Automatic annotation (TrEMBL):
Pfam families linked: Glyco_hydro_2 (PF00703), Glyco_hydro_2_C (PF02836), Glyco_hydro_2_N (PF02837)
Keyword terms of this UniProt record: Glycosidase, Hydrolase
Coiled-coil annotated spans: none
UniProt-listed NCBIfam families: PRK10150.1
Domain of life: Eukaryota
Enzyme Commission number(s): 3.2.1.31
Taxonomic source organism: Microdochium trichocladiopsis
Protein name in UniProt: Beta-glucuronidase
Domain Glycoside hydrolase family 2 immunoglobulin-like beta-sandwich: 183-281
One GO MF term: beta-glucuronidase activity
Family as reported in the entry's similarity comment: Belongs to the glycosyl hydrolase 2 family.
Amino acid sequence: MADLPANALREVVSLDGIWNFALAASPNLNDDPAWTRTLPSTLQAPVPASYNDIFTEREIQKHVGWVFYQRSVTLPFSWRDNLVIIRVGAATHRGRVYVNDTFVVEHHGGYMPFEADITSIIQPGETFRLTIAVNNELTWETVPPGEIEVAADGTRKQIVRHDFFNYSGLHRSVQLCCVPKNHITDVRVVTDVINSGKTGTVEYQVTTTQLARSNNRVKVALVDEAGSTVAEAMGAQGTLTVDSVQLWQPGAAYLYHLHVRLFPSAVPIAADEYKVNVGIRTVKVVGRQIHINEKPFYFTGFGKHEDYPVRGKGHDAAFMVHDYQLLKWMGANSFRTSHYPYDEAWLDYADRHGVVVINETPAVGMNLAIMAGWHGKAHKPTFSPDTCSDVTRKNHEHALRELIQRDKNHPCVVMWVIANEPSSHEETSRQYFEPLTVLARELDPTRPIGYANEKQAGPKEDKIIDLFDVICLNRYYGWYIFTGDLSGAEKGLEAELREWEAMYGKPIIMTEYGADTLAGLHTVGDVPWTEDYQMTHRVFDRIGSVVGEHVWNFADFQTPTDFILRIDGNKKGVFTRDRKPKAAARTLRKRWLDLQNRLDRTSR
Ligand code: BDP
């Protein structure tokens, strides 16, 4: 189930707030079973938040291994006769949950929710000790990958292969949920539009618990924004049709909701209910274009990060809504969830407000050629039994499954990005990625797929692009190449884009481009790092296959603090880390608002 909301038949208690906190004494969890004792309250950490920047101790900021979060929880008496579920929004990168001394669930992957049924362990009215152990280690088997270096004195250091800080902890809400025993476990909707755009169809499939399946009836009703039921049906699956449909449009969202109810036979009172927002729209790749509702769509916006001062990657509704306001102010119609899936609240908001989302897995940093290429050094193969191996791929498949399972119903999501900048010019990348593309299409045949391509895998060198629908390019002409030479950059970029266009005939999205800018630094002329050093967009306008531009990045963000090419983070943000616009914001804003006006006029 994508989420476990409260409703007439379900209750949810938030466990967010201040938890007792401790670093594990040993890398081996069983050497320090902290869940068997009550942690002292001398050290406490907020949930949700990364723990790294909360404390003053470098030891905590740079900690590699397990930490413990602990609090006490009382189970309401009124929840007897129901299931009690613990739901953890995200434990980055691995979480283990303990109820008193009992282990209840483990989850690998730092950006997905997981849950455990604790009904048989705790009695209603009982107070229990809830401990969540969180591990932030990245290895060649994890997604994203990393390596741990152990110094002679035993100090452990996490090497990451991606350009953002390895924020760790409980990044999203922790909830205690009360769910009817007889319940709905999943709802899937797929929409289409027929009859020249006049009729919408909503294919739905409801899954229920075993008990429910044998004895119960499922009733569904599709309700419009005014609260009127526009279609109804009985049965766990079927197709609803909506005449005079109101489409979900970028910038003009319309949301129906599917109200699913479960009735025990012959009893007129629902045993469970669940509501899913439904945006009726289509997405298709048509030649060199991406169509939303049969019309070419041009993406304007950013690659982002969940990254904020102090709270790191901890979800924060105020920052989220403010970021959305800034996106709107900029004239941005879309963004990419680089480089991992975001809190579901991001997608709910995008659904509601008509923002288009490119949704990415956490597979970033699968490229040993990047820094090696930079220094002209030889490197190990990226895809091999010693590096990204079959085990890594299995974990990558798991991450992809979880992402599509969680986000499949969101109309805002128009494309899945399977990895960011993998070493796709290496021969063995094909063996690694082909099964992932097959799986993505099997799990969701309705959305195009892509991966963000890195420069070394140019149009002639890339080994996997034919497996994807859209060419997503991350290019730094004028920054990492043609540094300080904007006219050389313009020519180089145009030549490369024309080559991609001629060789593949697929839509191209510029999923990254940009330059570091130190806010407040100005000069006369085009000098890198100043606010005056800005690229033009002329090339994109000259190439018909370019269907989108996502600047890297929306805001400055924190990077590993020992990465010598960064000073207190990556400064490619169009906004500073505290969300103040840099000079480029005005130029971009003008371009995107003009584009929006032009497109509005042509679609009228
Ligand atoms: C790209 C990565 C992105 C980096 C960016 C940069 O996709 O994560 O932050 O370059 O170097 O390679 O700024």
